[in-house]
Design goal:
The protein is mainly alpha-helical. It contains 8 helices and 2 strands; from the N terminus they run αααααβαβαα. The protein is rod-shaped and about 115 Å long.
């Protein structure tokens, strides 16, 4: 087509028909410009399509990561519930001056162990590498960054505080009541909801039980452990709601692309 216009233009120029020559020349330029604009538009469309495909791939990975995080949160919440029960029960045993029972070893296990949360962050790290602006929905992007930049670090900060309390104060005070004998086939207290693996784990026995019941400093730490577990449990439940809300938003975005 351009060759035809070029031939006509040369013919008009030779014949001295300048006005018609300029008209054809302008028409040729317009066609070239239109062709360039169409090419740019097609290229932009292809790039937008590729970005959308990258976005959906990352959103699906984040979605899968969050489901794994949900499972870990459920396990941690179960542990923290058991920890609160164990703390209350041990203080009740002390208060009522109850005799020793081997099942108390389950309480001893829980009162000084805080769960650790290890989030799956592969999808979010990939998003950071590709650029947060890849997420087109502003609300969805904020929900993702809020969870990974504020929600999860808050849990980590809680964990660090509890670990410091446990390692510097609680564990040293409690360890002196640990016996050297390992117990197995111990009856599980009815007020604990144990995962199957826990029922098969050997437990450390207690020693100097009567001295344990008189250690008021340790009793205060057990009360602190119960409070700490409750605070940590609250942050877990809050983050659990945030995760479920984000999962719903991700599913709406992913399903809307189909």
């Amino acid at each position: 087509m351009l060759r035809v216009f070029s031939k006509i233009r040369r013919g008009l120029f030779v014949e001295g028909k300048l006005l018609r020559y300029l008209s054809y020349a302008v028409g040729e330029i317009v066609l070239v410009v239109i062709g360039i604009l169409i090419a740019l538009q097609v290229n932009n469309w292809n790039e937008a399509r590729k970005d959308r495909e990258r976005e959906l791939t990352i959103l699906k990975e984040i979605h899968a990561d969050l489901h794994i995080d949900l499972e870990e949160f459920d396990r941690n919440i179960n542990h923290l519930n058991n920890q609160q029960v164990a703390c209350r029960r041990m203080l009740e045993i002390v208060r009522e001056d109850q005799p020793f029972d081997e099942s108390f070893s389950f309480y001893l296990f829980y009162i000084q162990r805080y769960p650790r949360f290890t989030p799956k962050t592969g999808g979010y790290q990939l998003l950071q590498n590709k650029g947060l602006e890849l997420i087109g929905d502003d609300g969805l992007r904020r929900a993702i960054t809020d969870l990974y930049e504020y929600g999860y670090p808050y849990i980590k900060a809680n964990e660090d505080d509890l670990e410091l309390f446990n390692s510097s104060l609680f564990a040293p005070a409690l360890n002196k009541y640990f016996g050297s004998e390992l117990l197995s086939d111990v009856n599980v207290p009815a007020d604990l909801e144990l995962p199957p693996s826990m029922t098969e784990q050997p437990l450390v026995n207690m020693r100097a039980f009567e001295a344990f019941k008189k250690d008021e400093d340790l009793h205060a730490m057990i009360r602190s452990s119960e409070i700490n577990a409750g605070s940590y449990l609250f942050s877990h439940h809050y983050s659990l709601r945030e995760i479920r809300t984000l999962i719903a938003k991700l599913e709406a975005e992913i399903d809307g692309s189909n």
